[in-house]
Amino acid sequence: MKVSKMGLKSIKLTELDKMYPGQDILLQTGQIKQYGSGLFAYDNVVLRVQDRIEEIIKKHMDSIDSIEVEMPLLQPSELWKSSGRYDKYISDGVMLTVKNDKCEYCLAPTAEEAITKFAENRLISYKQLPVSFYQIGKKFRDEIRNRGYLYRGKEFLMFDLYSFDENEDNLNSTYEKVKQAYFDTFKELELDLVAVAADNGTIGGTRSEEMMVISESGEDTILYDGKNGLNVEVLEKDNYADYLKREYNITDINNLNKMKAIELGHIFALGTKYSESMNIKYIDQNNQIKPFYMGCYGIGVSRVLGVLYENNIIKTNNEIVGFSLPLSVAPYYLYIISNNEREDEALTLYHKLNEANIPIILDDTKDSIGKKIRNAKILGIPYIAILGASTENLLVELEYTKDDSKEVMTVSNVVNKFKEIKEKYQR
RNA sequence: CGGAAAGUAGCUUAAUUUGGUAGAGCACUUGGUUCGGGACCAAGAGGUUGUGGGUUCAAAUCCCGUCUUUCCGACCA
């Protein structure tokens, strides 16, 4: 990719939003564009970071044998009326609909009804269990108040998984499996995930945990000691002490530290609540009709995207200058810069890396080196290769933007280094 | 939906209090000098001041409506 082909807008950052400086940079530099409250377009780099998040989630969910599927975004009103949730979602104003003179469709705010219909008459025997389905798809919610840029939009990308088991023990085992897959996923995204006890009030079931990432940009407050934790909202629950002890073995909340976090996922062990009410059942080995023990699990992909920017901000002299995205999600590993004299060398490096299928950006504009470095950081590219006056010909200064470390190496060593990185991140 | 603020060039904004030719910085275009951490000089282009109505000789400015956005609250991934 060449900068001259990207249609980039260069801009000096003005004063940044104090709550969400990272996403404010994206907005100021045109990497995201706002069309209305909670409505955003994504430019190339941001979009491809999102693609990477999806790939990583899929990899880990596939590894626990969950099956990827896709539900329709346009869902007939009848589907929502059949579950009895239509009236509530409409009167709450959360659900958006499109209609013509013949019929009305609901724009999927969530997918329980659709997935239930998907499982109905398909999952019929204990021989098919356990099984789980997942999808990553757009969701539409006409939130009364959008906030935090990508954190809560009217249109957002969500991962949602639904599990079906024969009994409570199997459900618990599936629950733990999915929870572990969450930790593996977020480890690869280089985000420290914290599972905290949550109020399972509206959705119900036996237990639920919110998957949080500690972030100053977060809207939630949690109590956490490095191992166990809870969302402070649980403390508003009746008999919260019993609930915490019974489901999470938390007995003393005074030892926990208060911190700000952003909720990226939520997992629920539902039990038979929905299979009973929606009447989806299977036949066990004794020819008995039994309700499924279900679980549902979500990740706000758009929020992950936002927090990846908020939590990977880099500063120079205490001034925010951009991002250094983790290599696991960076759509481009390297941003190549040269002065006029060494343009040809930069082009050679670019071609060699392209031949090795290393995703990179060449800044082939006539801007000053300083401005090019600024642009690399605004885009969040983790490595910058500088071919300028301070290194001899055929040598490249490679800067790692995360810690500002610099090393000088030959062109072929640069190529080898990025081949190794590519190998390591399995791309 | 309750409460609060704000809409002026692509962005940040001045002029609003006290009505009188809408001004600047960044970004953009052209020419020249620069070229390792957001260069400089010169010239240029860019606005029916969110929108509709009212008051007035005259409205960005005053009044009323309306739309939009942001913030606090409730809800959520």
Short description, anyone?
By secondary structure, this protein is an alpha+beta fold. The protein has helices at 21-28, 44-63, 77-83, 86-91, 112-119, 168-188, 240-248, 273-277, 301-310, 343-355, 369-379, 411-424, and strands spanning 32-36, 39-42, 67-68, 74-76, 96-99, 104-107, 131-140, 155-165, 193-197, 207-214, 220-224, 229-231, 257-271, 281-283, 289-291, 293-300, 313-316, 319-323, 334-338, 360-362, 383-387, 395-400, 405-410.
Head-to-tail CA distance between termini: 17 Å
Helix content: 25-40%
Give the low-pLDDT segments: none
- The backbone outline, from C-alpha atoms, is elongated
Radius of gyration: 24 Å
| Second rung of CATH, namely the architecture of the largest domain | 2-Layer Sandwich
Structural class by sheet pairing and helices? alpha+beta
**Total E-strand runs:** 23
Strand content: 25-35%
Enumerate how many helices there are, as a single number. Answer: 12
Domain unit count = 2
Query: Would you identify the CATH H-level superfamily of the largest domain?
Result: Bira Bifunctional Protein, Domain 2
How would you sum up the major sheet?
9 strands, mixed
CATH-derived topology of the largest domain: BirA Bifunctional Protein, domain 2
- Mean of residue pLDDT? 92
Description:
By secondary structure, this protein is an alpha+beta fold. The chain has two domains: 3-9 and 319-424, Anticodon-binding domain (Rossmann fold, 3-Layer(aba) Sandwich), CATH 3.40.50.800; 31-73 and 108-219 and 257-310, 2-Layer Sandwich (BirA Bifunctional Protein, domain 2). The protein has twelve helices and 23 strands. The chain has helices spanning 21-28, 44-63, 77-83, 86-91, 112-119, 168-188, 240-248, 273-277, 301-310, 343-355, 369-379, 411-424, and strands at 32-36, 39-42, 67-68, 74-76, 96-99, 104-107, 131-140, 155-165, 193-197, 207-214, 220-224, 229-231, 257-271, 281-283, 289-291, 293-300, 313-316, 319-323, 334-338, 360-362, 383-387, 395-400, 405-410. Strands 3, 7, 8, 9, 10, 11, 12, 13 and 16 form a nine-stranded mixed sheet that branches. It has a five-stranded mixed sheet with strand order 20-19-21-22-23, with helices on both faces. Strand 17 and strand 18 (319-323) form a beta hairpin. The mean pLDDT is 92. It binds one RNA strand of 77 nucleotides through residues 9-15, 28, 30, 34, 36-37, 92-94, 110, 139, 141, 143-145, 147, 151-152, 156-160, 202, 210-211, 262-266, 298-304, 316, 321, 337, 339-340, 366-375, 386, 388-390, 397.
